[in-house]
Design brief:
- This protein is an alpha/beta fold.
- The protein is built from ten helices and ten strands.
- The protein is globular and about 55 Å long.
Length: 294
């Protein structure tokens, strides 16, 4: 009897811990172990909207903005799942190591967002708010536009990536002192081969598969988040920082689209691309107000 009581006590303690804070969750996906960090608001957390959060370029789910927002949402009574994009690696953590060959594609994130959305369904979650920052904002918008799911209640995009073909070419030339077009043409002919000594995203003199290079650099209007927003059926909140020097043209492109109802645009004065310190609280307050209104 005593052993049975101890076992039941242990199970109850385990359940209580799960109800209030679950920490790292891992799943198998295409031969890789992918991870996410779950922060819950307490017992019955599945009954309120849960934020499914995607980080930015070559980053990770424990970077400052992700951790700060998870804590801020928890303080406001909302649970969140911050996913760590695999970028082709098993149990990846921290910033992507530029010495590691790149085989990941921009659109791989869509499958991984879908994987974690399905996991939340299995936990009995009643509704989900998709949230993405920077490139993760574009990937989140792309998912919402092309893979709409009944579980998704609304979408929050924080400094989501913009794109312009001419600007992309100029930026590559400025950053690496090389023309992008010949490299892209080489990649498009490269099939599944590797390109060595290539400059790729933020990594100098690295290796990347031709498929990866094409995925990130081939002209595609869907890389521009404002292009995607009108195709999203759910309410959308776009948050921009007035001092953001990473994402260009976001406010100008969003202003004609934002109707103040289904599509809302908020510009936080003084905030840069990462919404540090009290700016993160402004993001969280605005997001919660938007969620509760929709």
């Amino acid at each position: 009897m005593r052993k049975t009581l101890l076992t039941l006590t242990a199970l109850f303690a385990s359940f209580t811990a799960w109800s209030s804070h679950a920490g790292e969750i891992s799943l198998q996906h295409k031969g890789l172990t992918v991870t996410a960090n779950l922060e819950t608001s307490g017992a019955g957390w599945q009954q309120k909207p849960v934020l499914l959060m995607t980080h930015g370029t070559l980053a990770h789910n424990r970077m400052e903005i992700m951790q700060t927002l998870q804590t801020a949402f928890q303080d406001r009574g909302y649970s969140s799942l911050a996913i760590n994009l695999s970028l082709g690696l098993s149990r990846r953590s921290g910033m992507y190591d530029c010495a590691v060959p790149h085989t990941h594609k921009h659109t791989d994130a869509l499958d991984e967002i879908g994987l974690w959305l399905d996991w939340l369904k299995q936990q009995g979650v009643q509704s989900v708010v998709l949230l993405g920052h920077s490139r993760g904002g574009n990937q989140t918008a792309w998912f919402a536009a092309e893979r709409d799911d009944a579980l998704v209640r609304s979408v929050v995009l924080i400094a989501p990536a913009t794109w312009d073909q001419g600007y992309a070419a100029k930026d590559y030339q400025k950053r690496y002192k090389k023309a992008l077009a010949p490299l892209l043409a080489q990649a498009e002919k490269g099939g599944k081969g590797m390109m060595k000594g290539i400059d790729f995203i933020y990594c100098e003199n690295t290796s990347a598969s031709a498929e990866a290079f094409v995925s990130y650099y081939r002209p595609d209007p869907r890389m521009d988040t404002p292009h995607l927003v009108p195709s999203i059926k759910k309410p959308v909140l776009v948050v921009a920082g007035s001092e953001d020097t990473v994402v260009t043209g976001l406010v100008e492109k969003m202003q004609p689209i934002a109707d103040g109802e289904r599509v809302q645009l908020t510009v936080i004065d003084g905030a840069d691309h990462f919404f540090r310190d009290l700016y993160a609280d402004e993001v969280a307050d605005g997001a919660v107000e938007f969620i509760e209104a929709h």
